[in-house]
Design brief:
Layout (H helix, E strand, L loop, with lengths): L4 H8 L5 E5 L3 H13 L4 E6 H6 L2 H14 L5 E8 L1 H10 L4 E4 L6 H16 L4 E6 L3 E4 L2 E3 L9 H11 L3 E4 L4 E2 L12 H10 L5 E3 L7 H9 L15 H6 L2 E6 L1 H17 L6 H23 L5 H9 L1
Parallel strand pairs: 1-2, 1-11, 2-3, 3-4, 4-5, 5-8, 6-9, 8-10, 10-11
Antiparallel strand pairs: 6-7
Helix pairs in contact: 2-4, 2-12, 5-6, 6-7, 7-8, 9-11, 11-12
Bound molecules: glyceraldehyde-3-phosphate, 1,3-dihydroxyacetonephosphate and zinc ion (ZN).
């Protein structure tokens, strides 16, 4: 069942975070639904602009519609990840997405508000909710690299003003995470003090943490042992998700970790089965490993085991 992120955030606020997972293809879609149902978790499917144009945006929509029928017990939101104005309007008008992100975080404060406000008006008119972003994460996004030094943490005073003036339904905040597999040049530093200040000024308002992959060292080592070359890859300690959730983070974005699962599975499989050229056996291994990864991640997020409670809340 497709719901809005707003409905999921109401159930989760202050207690746990909903996993927001990026997908690009059939195998990820199957693994995603299985993993969430195995762990009894509500979830968010994220589709980036890059994923929409990987084949054709209608292909991913078709996969999700089919998965909704194949897995009738699943409760999830369909969300545009890092949209610009054009892709936001496209998703709002498609009638399929329940949530869009307008990412005008690279614009000056006033312009970010102005753009976000326009999207909010168009989205709300159709019952679609809007995530906006204030501050700037480091890392790679849509092929643009922002260095750690140029990343800007969200200003808590501006956050309150931004939410009031833009009318957005949730806010992505920069508190030290970054996109991609190479986070934190030194030791990991999530700025919980900034998050606490934001929550103080926006009590009860859903916050979003992007760039939250953990980049598990075991995964990186297995990839490198099977011919990969990911030196110095590092991520967010997943045991910190709970603290973030208590401070108002209701959505945690994870993409890179899923890509690492894909890379590890494929590198190891073809190393160990050099005679194989059939795509189905490896596809089956990946779907199963991806489902395991999702279920485990939901354990850290606290969303595992919440599905029945969310179903009850939705039926009230
Ligand atoms: O934040 C970006 C997401 O990881 C999506 O990545 O634009 O390569 O699909 P993508
Ligand atoms: P990661 O690169 O840490 O997985 O972050 C993904 C993300 O923020 C998608 O919007
Ligand atoms: Zn992101």
């Amino acid at each position: 069942m497709i719901v809005t992120t707003k409905q999921l955030f109401k159930a989760a606020y202050g207690k746990y975070a909903i996993g927001a997972y990026n997908i690009n293809n059939l195998e990820q879609t199957m693994g995603l639904f299985r993993g969430n149902l195995d762990s009894k978790a509500p979830f968010i499917i994220q589709i980036s602009k890059g994923a929409r144009s990987y084949t054709d945006k209608l292909m991913l929509e078709g996969l999700i519609r089919a998965a909704d029928q194949v897995f009738p017990d699943a409760i999830f939101a369909v969300h545009l990840d890092h949209g610009d104005e054009e892709s936001c309007y496209d998703c709002i008008n498609s009638g399929f997405y329940s949530s869009v992100m307008i990412d005008a975080s690279a614009e000056p404060f006033e312009k970010n508000i102005e753009i976000t406000r326009r999207i909010v008006e168009a989205a709300h008119a159709k019952g679609i909710v809007v995530e906006a972003e204030l501050g700037q994460l480091g890392g790679v996004e849509e092929h643009v690299q922002v260095s750690e030094a140029n990343a800007k943490l969200t200003d808590p005073y501006q956050a309150k003003k931004f939410v009031e003036l833009s009318g957005c339904d949730s806010l992505a905040v920069a508190i030290g995470t970054s996109h991609g597999a190479f986070k934190f040049s030194g030791t990991q530093s999530l700025h919980f003090e900034v998050l606490a200040e934001i929550q103080k000024r926006l009590p009860g308002f859903p916050l979003v943490m992007h760039g939250s992959s953990s980049v598990p060292q075991e995964e990186v080592e297995r990839i490198n042992a099977a011919g990969g070359n990911l030196k110095g890859a590092k991520g967010v300690d997943a045991t910190q998700f709970h603290r973030a959730a208590q401070l108002g983070v209701t959505k945690i974005n994870i993409d890179t970790d899923g890509r690492l699962v894909w890379t590890r599975v494929h590198r190891e499989y073809f190393r160990d089965h050099p005679e194989n050229f059939d795509l189905r056996p490896i596809g089956k291994v990946f779907m199963s490993e991806y489902a395991k990864f999702i279920a485990e991640k939901n354990g850290y997020l606290g969303s595992a085991g919440q599905l029945d409670e969310v179903r009850k809340l939705l039926s009230k």
